[in-house]
Amino acid sequence: MRDFLKLLKKHDELKIIDTPLEVDLEIAHLAYIEAKKPNGGKALLFTQPIRKEHDQIKTFDMPVLMNAFGSFKRLDLLLKTPIESLQQRMQAFLHFSAPKNFTEGLKVLKDLWDLRHIFPKKTARPKDLIIKQDKEVNLWDLPVLKTWEKDGGAFITMGQVYTQSLDHKKKNLGMYRLQVYDKNHLGLHWQIHKDSQLFFHEYAKAKVKMPVSIAIGGDLLYTWCATAPLPYGVYELMLYGFIREKKARVMPCLSNPLSVPSDCDIVIEGFVDCEKLELEGPFGDHTGY
Question: Which ranges carry the 3-octaprenyl-4-hydroxybenzoate carboxy-lyase-like Rift-related domain (predicted)?
Answer without folding.
Answer: 126-289
